[in-house]
């Protein structure tokens, strides 16, 4: 049986503060992880650097996560299981993300067990109304904001499917089509470097890339329809354009227009 090496302090599993997670209200919450290692050598290395005689290494059997999933499902708990997470800043590329409504009383002990037995980058638990599948790679993408500056790491594609931006990057010209010459839609900011690679440049009547603001504060009244009109006035019909989000805030968004000479005119 596969085993793990855990560090205990005075008979209790030792937990270290791992990172600070930003909450939607702007405060931070410290997440703790148990000190657990795949090899005894790794555990010893940490123990030797601590100089705390009350710390001890304990070898424990590693439970298969599939047994936990089977237990939950056999108790009527609905799960969405993702083999990998595409959302930046969350877990790892190959994290197994298990989502459900964890408020159900029956799941509480299992939640604690999973959290204590797997590193979050190995197995993570999420809420099923906050995550969805990418229609191409089936990795998890977050559909619920986690901060004021959060921007979706996905786009909607024609047949009402979500596509993560990692997948969108691979097919950028096709994805682009729906957004081209359309001031009602804006491309996500993460894809700006991609459209610059295929020949788009920021449309600006200044020396720098103009970033427009639309929002609730005084003066934040930029209108994509007006910029669209201006692009056509200045460049004529030989250019195509796309609007891109530049940033997101609590009460406003910032955006720019990008242009590229149409191919038939080259
Ligand atoms: Zn994807």
Oligomer: single chain
Radius of gyration, in Å, reads: 24 Å
Give the names of the bound compounds: zinc ion
Count of strand segments: 17
In round numbers, the mean pLDDT is 91
Order of helices and strands: EEEEEHEHEEHEEEEEHHHEEHEE
CA(first)-CA(last) distance: 65 Å
Largest sheet: 4 strands, antiparallel
> How many discrete structural domains?
3
Total helix count? 7
General form: elongated
Features:
single chain, 266 residues, alpha+beta, 3 domains, four-stranded antiparallel sheet, 7 helices, elongated, binds zinc ion
Question: Helices and strands in order, then pairings?
Answer:
Blueprint: E1 3-9, E2 12-13, E3 15-22, E4 28-34, E5 36-37, H1 40-50, E6 55-61, H2 65-74, E7 80-83, E8 96-100, H3 108-117, E9 123-127, E10 131-133, E11 140-142, E12 154-157, E13 161-164, H4 165-170, H5 172-176, H6 192-197, E14 201-202, E15 212-215, H7 224-235, E16 239-248, E17 252-261
Parallel strand pairs: 8-9
Antiparallel strand pairs: 1-2, 1-5, 1-6, 3-4, 7-8, 10-11, 12-13, 14-17, 15-17, 16-17
The structure holds zinc ion.
Zinc ion is lined by residues 86, 134, 136-137, 139, 164, 166-167.
């Amino acid at each position: 049986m596969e085993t793990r090496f855990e560090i205990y302090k005075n008979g209790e599993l030792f937990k270290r503060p791992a990172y600070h997670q930003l909450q939607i209200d702007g405060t931070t919450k410290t997440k703790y992880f148990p000190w657990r290692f795949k090899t005894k050598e790794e555990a010893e290395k940490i123990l030797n650097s601590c100089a705390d005689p009350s710390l001890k290494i304990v070898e424990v059997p590693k439970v298969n996560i599939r047994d936990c999933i089977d237990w939950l499902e056999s108790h009527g708990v609905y799960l969405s299981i993702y083999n990998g997470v595409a959302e930046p800043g969350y877990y790892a590329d190959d994290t197994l993300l298990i989502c459900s409504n964890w408020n159900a009383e029956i799941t509480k002990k299992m939640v604690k067990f999973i959290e204590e037995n797997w590193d979050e980058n190995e197995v993570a638990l999420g809420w099923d109304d906050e995550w969805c599948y990418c229609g191409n790679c089936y990795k998890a993408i977050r559909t619920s904001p986690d901060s004021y500056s959060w921007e979706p790491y996905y786009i909607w594609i024609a047949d009402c499917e979500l596509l993560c931006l990692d997948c969108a990057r691979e097919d950028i010209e096709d994805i682009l089509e729906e957004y081209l010459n359309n001031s009602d839609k804006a491309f996500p900011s993460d894809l700006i470097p991609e459209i610059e690679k295929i020949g788009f440049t920021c449309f600006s009547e200044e020396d720098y890339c103009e970033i427009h603001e639309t929002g609730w504060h005084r003066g934040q009244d930029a209108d994509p329809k007006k910029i669209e009109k201006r692009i056509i006035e200045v460049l004529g019909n030989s250019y195509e354009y796309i609007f891109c989000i530049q940033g997101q805030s609590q009460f406003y968004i910032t955006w720019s227009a990008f242009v590229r000479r149409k191919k038939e005119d080259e």
